[in-house]
Design brief:
about 350 residues; Aspartate Aminotransferase, domain 1; Aspartate Aminotransferase, domain 2; about 40% helix; 2 domains; three-stranded antiparallel sheet; seven-stranded mixed sheet; binds pyridoxal-5'-phosphate
């Protein structure tokens, strides 16, 4: 065999998504992919239906209308926004544009899988920095930086831990990075935090910070693949050079625009999430399953050890509940549970209680 891919590619493990079916069990509830249990709002669905009439037309390639809507709703400069097929594509653009052979890409111990995948795909060297009790540690990241560091990825709130790093810490990190490095703040869950701009303010204060956001979580559009990034004008200019002109369909653009302008659906989804997250965390705590205070739309339930987490996962599956094992994220004793609607939260709490009772 003389056909070999670029170095690093074969180090990427094939991605395994959250399961959505259980053989032999109907009435399955999927709480494994941090999806909005209510789906998109009516305005987004109407935009989707309407878009069917223009499927023969090429989409806008500059995304001007969607960028203007995002800029409007978030109070940002639309010229510094880039839209992609999920925020995954923005993460990929950043690695392709700024990291190559011999360069290092930093992410943290329990960090999101895409950072490592995109770094390897770009031929760069992934560097994993340890966290402190499931929280990103800025000091350790600064210690790991050197003249080869090109990108530092942090999700804030983080997935799968649900924890956050404070704004002052992030400002200190941005100020302490080597000159050739860019800080990327992944705000996939930023909308779930009250009065949080996802660090857009830090992006505006500095020339080495980029923020990524998504329509996949709060806006309930994971299936449609829309995300965006906000950064310094010259960085956005660089990313636009490697972006395919028609990377988003007009359907994606129109639905995203309707979704971001639907403040009511966003507020409803956020409010239910906050209420049910507190309820579920307390219910699990009461039966001896603690979790860190989560700032996102899931909680990371901690069990005594790996064996108990695996047994509980099996018990949940037998009862039609799919949650996420996170051993691959260095958390073998944990299960990540997406906050569903009220019935789902009650069912998952009830089932874990029955599991605990069985083991007594
Ligand atoms: C879900 C998630 C995303 C979103 O990815 P999309 O490609 O926009 O669907 C990004 N970052 C993190 C940390 C996530 O959990």
């Amino acid at each position: 065999m003389t056909l070999t891919p670029q170095p690093g590619i074969l180090d990427i493990e094939l991605y395994k998504g959250g399961q959505s079916q259980l053989p032999g069990v109907d009435d399955v509830i999927k709480l494994s992919s941090n999806e909005n249990p209510f789906g998109p709002g009516d305005l987004a669905k109407e935009a989707f239906a309407k878009s069917v009439h223009q499927l023969h037309r090429y989409p806008s390639s500059d995304h001007a209308a969607l960028r203007a809507a995002i800029a409007d709703v978030h109070g940002l400069d639309g010229e510094r926004i880039i839209c992609g097929s999920g925020s995954d594509e923005i993460i990929n653009f950043l690695c392709q544009a700024y990291a190559g052979a011999g360069d290092e890409v930093i992410y943290t111990e329990h960090g999101f899988a895409m950072y490592r995948i995109c770094a390897l795909a770009a031929g760069a060297t992934p560097v994993e920095v340890s966290e402190r009790e499931r929280v990103v540690d800025v000091e350790r990241i600064l210690e790991a930086c050197n003249e080869r560091t090109r990108l530092v990825f942090i999700a804030n709130p983080a997935n799968p831990t649900g924890t956050m790093v404070g704004g002052n810490e992030l400002a200190r990190l941005a100020a302490g990075l080597p000159d050739q490095a860019l800080l990327v703040l992944d705000g996939a869950y930023a909308e779930y935090v009250d009065n949080f701009d996802g660090c857009a303010g830090l992006v505006e204060q500095r020339d080495n910070v980029v923020m990524t956001r998504t329509f996949s979580k709060l806006h309930g559009l994971g299936g449609l693949r829309i995300g965006w990034g906000y950064g310094p004008a010259d960085v956005i200019n660089v990313l636009n050079r490697i972006r395919a002109p028609f990377n988003l369909s007009q359907t994606q653009l129109d639905v995203a625009e309707a979704a971001i302008r639907d403040a009511d659906h966003a507020a409803f989804s956020r409010k239910e999430n906050t209420r049910l997250r507190a309820w579920l965390a307390a219910a699990l705590m009461k039966i001896g399953v603690p979790s860190d205070t989560s700032c996102a739309n899931f909680i990371l339930a901690r069990f005594a050890d790996r064996a108990e987490a695996e047994a509980c996962d099996g018990y949940l599956k037998k009862n039609g509940l799919i949650v996420r094992r996170v051993a691959g994220y260095g958390l073998p004793n944990c299960l990540r549970i997406t906050i569903g609607d009220e019935a789902s939260c009650r069912r998952v709490a009830h089932t874990i209680a029955a599991f605990k009772e069985d083991r007594k």
